[in-house]
C-alpha cells in the first residue's frame, strides 16, 4: 500500500466523522495555543530585559575599578593600562581622569557646570565613541563636549524663579539655542586658601560635539579637556586634579578614575575577566548580569513550557478516544486489508499517520492563533497598563514574544504526544481478527 493510498484512506475516513475530528483538532489547537502564549510571556519579558541591558551598557565592556597587589590597593596608571591592553582578546582600554571640582563654563551671557574629564581619545574612538559634529582636539585649549552640554547653560541676566517651571525644568524660551561648535567659552576653576576663595579662568574652544547616547532618555553633558589644561589647573590649585581644598588632596587618586576594557565580542568578555581577576584587578562586566538573567529566565521558560505541556497531554486524551473509535468503526476495513495481505506494520502506520495528522492540524492552528493573541496582547495590555497606572512603559517593551525556537519546541511536543496517544489504538488495529472483521461486515 503506497503512502498516497494511505493518505486517501485516512482522509476519506476522517470525512465520515467530521464532527469528532473537528472537536479533537480544536482541543489540540487550544492546548498548543495555551502552551505558546504562556511561554511567550517569559520569552517576551526576557527579550525586553536583555535589550534594555544591551542598550544601556555595552555588553563587551568590562569596568575595572581597582587593583589588589600583594594584599594592598594600588592605583591604576599607564603601566597597568599597557598590561591590560596586551591581554589576549582586548580590543581597547579607555581611561580618564576626573577633575576634582566642577568648573563654571560661560559664553554669551550663559553659564553652567559640566562634569569635566581628561580622556584618551584614541582608545575612546576605538571603543566606539563618535564625534557627531566637528573633530577631535589638536591643541591644548581645544575641548569636546557631550551632546547635551548646552542643556547645562542658563541665562545669567534672568531671575532663577522665572526661567524654570514647577518641575525644575528650564523653560524652552530660555534654553541656549546657538551652535556650540567653534564657540570660545571660559572655564573658571577655584581654590580655597586660609578660608579665602580665589578663581582662575581659562579660555577654551569647543571643536567637537559627541553623538547622543544609545538610549533616548540618557543625557551626556561631559566636557573633555586636555592633559595640558588639567596640568594648568593643578598648578593654580596646588592640588591633585584641581581639588578645591588642600585637605581633599589626600583623598584624590593621582591615577585613572574610570577604566574600561573592551572585548572584540561578547564571548571574549569572560576570558578577559578571568585574566583580569588572576592579575588582581577588580572587574565587572554587564555580560555577568546577562548570564544571571539568562539562567533565571531559562528556568522560568522551562517551567512555563512544562505547564503548557500538561494542557497538551490532557488534549491527547481526546486524540486517544478519537483513534480508538476510528479503529472500532473501521474494523471491517482492517479485516479486508489483512485479507488482501496488508502487513500489520502498514496498518499501524496508517493510524499513527492519522493521529499525527490531527496533531499537526492542531499545532498549526494553535501557532497561528498564538501569533494573533501575542500581537493583540502587546498592543492591548500596553494601552491598559499605561492607562490604568499612568506610567509610560519602556520603549520596545513586549509582554509576549514567540521566537522560532518556541514554535519548534511546541511542534515537537505536540507531535510526540499525539503519536504516543495514537500508538495504542494503532496497535489494537493490528490485532483485529480477519474472520471476525469480515463476519461483522456480512
UniProtKB/TrEMBL annotation:
Q: Which domain of life is it from?
A: Bacteria
Record keywords: Membrane included?
Answer: yes
Its signal peptide is none
Q: Which residues cross the membrane?
A: 21-45, 295-320, 357-381, 401-420
**A GO CC annotation given for this chain:** plasma membrane
Q: Which GO terms describe its molecular function?
A: transmembrane transporter activity
- Primary location group: membrane
Ranges for domain MacB-like periplasmic core come to 23-226
Q: Which UniProt keywords apply?
A: Cell membrane, Membrane, Transmembrane, Transmembrane helix
Membrane topology category: Multi-pass membrane protein
Q: Which InterPro entries match?
A: ABC3_permease_C (IPR003838), MacB_PCD (IPR025857), Macrolide_Exporter_MacB (IPR050250)
Compartments reported by the entry: Cell membrane
| Database matches in PROSITE patterns | PROKAR_LIPOPROTEIN
Residues covered by the ABC3 transporter permease C-terminal domain: 305-419
Protein family according to the UniProt entry:
Belongs to the ABC-4 integral membrane protein family.
Protein name as it appears in the record: Acetoin utilization transport system permease protein
